[in-house]
TrEMBL record:
Its main location: membrane. This is Major facilitator superfamily (MFS) profile domain-containing protein. It is found in: Membrane. It comes from Anopheles epiroticus. InterPro entries: MFS, MFS_dom, MFS_Na/Anion_cotransporter, MFS_trans_sf. One of its GO terms (molecular function) is symporter activity. Keywords: Membrane, Symport, Transmembrane, Transmembrane helix, Transport. It is a multi-pass membrane protein. Residues 14-465 form the Major facilitator superfamily (MFS) profile domain. The keyword Hydrolase does not apply. One of its GO terms (biological process) is monoatomic anion transport. Residues 488-497 have a biased composition (Polar residues). Residues 469-497 are annotated as: Disordered.
């Protein structure tokens, strides 16, 4: 067993820790504005639904919340606020995704070429710097905030698909479910960000939210580049034992060439790829709808007050992360022990994580008007959905580690539009008609989407490596290397030889 950094922690453990905190901060940098805008606005004719998820960025709805800045002991003064109307607020919130959807696919491919460490690290670095500039932008003009948030989304959009290429070169195949579960730390980060930002707003002022989250992100970025490296071979502090352990496990199926191009035709006509894309889209659509609309449903249908609402709305975040960790450890154990094949593992956990919430939504249709049933079903649905980390979420690494970033980028680009569709769907169905009957239609739609998406994966998904992961080279084909190694790293190694 390798001793790793400082003789007591391995390089992979350091990478795990940094990725966990990285995704927590990733969400903190994107949701901080959705929390702070309530305190930044003078007249709260309409305010933001406090779900603290991506899809909030499209939706400004009337929740008649109490302005947190008017509580006793608040240091925020009216002069520190802005006269932004609902249209301007919605524009600022929605602009994040203008940039976000542009870099999902390019970010994944870029990480395959230059390495996930650079793409993830620099996306977080620039997003942190932009976060620190948010108070200045707000005091300049609301359009400055729109531009800043769009550029921030542009950088953060590349961060998610960048982790898959990094996983391909650092994590042995049988341990990848556990590592992919680190991405769900974003849910944990969102849940923790809510009370911290609320405390900062009430005691110091809304500006502190951006200085705090941006400062932490900047600190994390500096540490990331100090302790994380593109490959085991390039890490200056890795022990020979750990390097050998990683490289032996990854190359167990034999050395493969790192392709210099993307076989787009093979990818776009591959049923396993579309299984991932369709299931990811269905899962994220359901997640966006449940989490984004949960506070509204609790207020208008279940009649919870805002304090009860805020507490109960945070439960799904914690539950989803807990299930992500539990299921990923179980999945890797089942695969390592030979009790289940990779294909069977991915299909079983995907069905459990995506199909089961679909059946729960059918129960919600009939039982959702009862408080205890409704809260229990919502929480259980999101809890079970965390098992996607053992299912389809890391499946791109199984079928094509060389193009795992590209595949995830495609899937996440499509699923990002789930926020638009979800908000529009619920808005159209419940506009001036907040009745249980209309919400039953929402639940039926969710049930169909969940079940259809998971069925597509059960029919078309696989855990087998695809032949197009290593397509024939157009050139001379020199430069044999491990799967997943960034192209620039391969070229530099070849030059040395």
């Amino acid at each position: 067993m390798s001793t790793g950094i400082a003789g007591w922690i391995t390089c992979r453990q350091v990478l795990n820790i940094m990725v966990i905190f990285g995704f927590m901060l990733n969400y903190a940098l994107r949701v901080n504005f959705t929390i702070a805008i309530v305190a930044m606005t003078k007249t709260l004719v309409s305010t933001v639904v406090p779900d603290y998820d991506d899809s909030t960025l499209f939706n400004v709805t009337d929740t008649t919340m109490t302005d947190p800045t008017t509580t006793e002991g608040s240091v925020i003064k009216e002069a520190d606020k802005f006269e932004w109307d609902a249209r301007q607020q919605n524009l600022m919130l929605g602009s994040f995704f203008w940039g976000y959807v542009l870099t999902e696919l390019p970010g994944g491919r870029l990480a395959e070429i230059i390495g996930g460490r650079r793409v993830f690290g620099y996306s977080m670095l620039w997003a942190s710097l932009l976060t620190l500039l948010t108070p200045l932008a707000a005091n300049t003009h609301y359009i400055a905030v729109v531009i800043l948030r769009a550029v921030l989304g542009f950088f953060l959009g590349a961060s998610w698909p960048a982790i898959h290429p990094l996983t391909a070169v650092w994590i042995p195949p049988m341990d990848r479910s556990k590592f992919i579960a680190n991405m769900m730390a974003s849910s944990l980060g969102a849940a923790i960000t809510m009370p911290i930002c609320g405390f900062l707003i009430a005691t110091i002022g809304w500006q502190s939210v951006f200085y705090f989250t941006g400062g932490l992100g900047l600190l994390w970025s500096i540490i990331w580049f100090m302790v994380v490296f593109e490959t085991p071979a390039s890490h200056p502090r890795i022990t020979p034992e750990e390097r050998t352990e990683i490289e032996t496990a990854i190359n167990a199926v034999g050395k493969k060439k790192k392709p210099s191009y993307v076989p787009w035709k093979s990818i776009l006509t591959s049923p396993p790829v579309w299984a991932i894309i369709l299931t990811h889209g269905a899962s994220v659509f359901g997640f966006f709808t449940v989490v984004n609309q949960l506070p509204t449903y609790m207020k208008y249908i279940l009649h919870f007050n805002i304090k009860e609402n805020g507490l109960l709305s945070s439960l799904p975040y914690f539950g989803k992360y807990a299930m992500a960790v539990i299921s990923s450890h179980l999945a890797d154990y089942l695969r390592k022990s030979g009790k289940l094949s990779t294909t069977a593992t991915r299909k079983i956990f995907t069905a459990f994580a995506v199909m089961t919430p679909g059946f729960l939504m059918i129960i919600q249709v009939y039982m959702g008007e009862t408080r205890s049933w409704a809260v229990g079903i919502f929480t259980l649905s999101l809890f079970l959905n965390g098992a996607v980390t053992a299912g389809y979420l890391g499946n791109g690494l199984d079928i094509a580690p060389n193009f795992s970033g590209t595949i995830f980028g495609m899937a996440n680009t499509l699923s990002s539009f789930g926020g638009f569709v979800s908000a529009y769907m619920v808005g159209q169905l419940t506009n001036d008609n907040q009745t249980y009957g209309q919400w039953q239609i929402v639940f039926w739609i969710l049930a169909v989407v969940y079940i259809t998406g998971s069925t597509a994966y059960v029919l078309m998904g696989t855990g087998e490596l695809q032949a197009w992961n290593n397509p024939p080279e157009k050139g001379d084909g020199n430069g044999e290397t491990e799967e997943g190694v960034p192209l620039n790293t391969r070229n530099q190694t070849a030059a040395v030889k």
